[in-house]
Design brief:
single chain; 175 residues; 4-stranded mixed sheet; 6 strands; 33% helix; globular
């Protein structure tokens, strides 16, 4: 009886494995990756945030695309005259989007870990460039929570509180 049960189980497993579709050879097709236009926000000469549009190959799934968009933001502006907003050694450790509308952006890097010594304006622009980029490109994202090395952080450089999720501030964007 046990042999018969084992044989039937093995037969079912074998036949069910054969019926599965093989993985696509093209993962871009499988993940529905297509060129999409995104707006990345950098500081303008007016000391406000201004959009810079780029075409990126992004998966259709917003949760998967969020990480890629944030990595692109960290590369900096295509205009060499626009200064970096975050320290050059900053990394995106991960970016996540919860179903209720909160996006998490996990930053890392030696400067942020050891203590970034910058002014309040630069810290404000750095944080809100991320908030604005996330909420402008992902309608599902209503607010952004910034983490440092996987942990909630009080601040990036001592001026702007990160104790809660942040929402976009339209008055900080060039109109």
């Amino acid at each position: 009886m046990i042999r018969r049960f084992a044989f039937v189980t093995l037969l079912l497993l074998t036949t069910s494995c054969r019926r599965q579709q093989p993985l696509s050879r093209n993962l871009n097709v499988e993940n529905k990756v297509a060129m999409r236009t995104v707006s990345l926000y950098y500081e303008s000469p007016d000391l406000l945030l201004a959009p810079e549009r780029r075409n990126l190959p992004l998966p259709q799934n917003p949760a998967a695309a969020l990480d890629l968009v944030m990595r692109e933001l960290l590369k900096g502006s295509a205009n060499a005259a626009v200064p970096r907003l975050l320290p050059a050694d900053t990394t995106i450790r991960g970016a996540y989007l919860l179903p209720e509308g909160t996006a998490f952006v996990d930053l890392g890097g030696p400067t942020l870990t050891q203590g970034w010594t910058t002014g309040s304006h630069q810290e404000l622009m750095a944080i809100y460039s991320g908030v604005q980029t996330v909420t402008a490109n992902f309608v599902e994202a209503k607010r952004v929570r910034v983490l440092v090395n996987g942990e909630p952080a009080e601040t990036l450089a001592g001026h702007v509180s990160l104790s809660r999720a942040l929402t976009p501030v339209p008055s900080m964007v060039v109109r």
